[in-house]
Design a protein that fits this description.
By secondary structure, the chain is an alpha/beta fold. It is about 45% helix and about 15% strand. It has a seven-stranded parallel β-sheet, with helices on both faces. Strand 2, helix 2 and strand 3 form a beta-alpha-beta unit. The longest helix is centred in the middle third of the chain and has 29 residues.
Length: about 240
């Protein structure tokens, strides 16, 4: 038995990258998974892969910009497995750009997905965790919020907003709930695909060092597998070459 075996874990943004890697690792440790995301074909394929390896998983289409979708994700987990032990809020986008390009629609999308989506997850899961007397939030943010650089100000602001609300939630959570923030550095994911500024996209794709999503998944698992009285508050995982 491990600290993960039998736990019910819901993950947003589970169709690729860190979400997918976390799902695979958690399933291998015995977690029962509910995978949320917008790309049903990817989620279906991931569930099939987990089940072929003897794991337990289900999926439901989830757009974190919609509060009802997060409520449905939590309700689906409870209906299928009888509980929800962990919500991993991983969904995020990064259409970063210089302020002078005035990509206001991109700013709005980052606020809606990266920040508002986490709030909607908290609104859906917190009452369930209170009722159960247990539960853990794992919020995936970014080292972009720790070192502010040009072109990433709005993205970093959304991630720092999540960092702030997570600390506030931790202080209000009491002895029965846990709140963890995981801050990845450069990771080889589809992050660059969401960048709408051609110049910035080429700069990001030129980065010749990055972590694997598996590296971040291990940090997520580490936080979840701790004893119930141990709250791992903040984990920063970056490449050794990253300044």
């Amino acid at each position: 038995m491990t600290g993960i075996d039998g736990k019910v874990v819901a993950i947003t943004g589970a169709g690729s990258g860190i979400g997918e890697a976390s799902a695979l690792l958690l399933a291998s440790r015995g977690a029962k998974l509910v995978l949320g995301g917008r790309r049903g074909d990817r989620l279906e394929a991931l569930v099939a892969r987990i089940e072929a390896d003897g794991g337990t998983a289900a999926w439901t289409r989830t757009d974190v910009r919609r509060r009802g979708d997060l409520a449905d994700l939590v309700a689906y987990a409870r209906g299928r497995y009888g509980a929800l032990d962990v919500l991993v809020s991983n969904a995020g986008i990064g259409p970063i750009s210089p302020f002078d390009e005035l990509r206001v629609e991109d700013w709005d999308q980052m606020i809606d997905v990266n920040f508002r989506g986490v709030l909607y997850g908290i609104a859906a899961a917190l009452p369930v965790f209170r009722e159960q007397g247990r539960g853990q939030f794992v919020n995936v943010v970014s080292t972009a919020g720790l070192r502010i650089v040009p072109n990433q100000a709005v993205y970093a602001a959304t991630k720092n907003a999540v960092r702030t609300l997570s600390e506030g939630l931790r202080q209000e959570a009491g002895p029965d709930l846990r709140v963890t923030v995981v801050s990845p550095g450069y990771v080889a994911t589809e992050f660059a695909d969401s960048i709408t500024s051609p110049t910035v996209k080429s700069q990001v794709r030129a980065v010749d060092f990055s972590l694997s999503p598996d590296d971040i998944a291990r940090a997520v698992v580490f936080a979840i597998e701790q004893p119930s009285n141990v709250d791992v508050g903040d984990i920063v995982v970056r490449p050794t070459a990253q300044s």
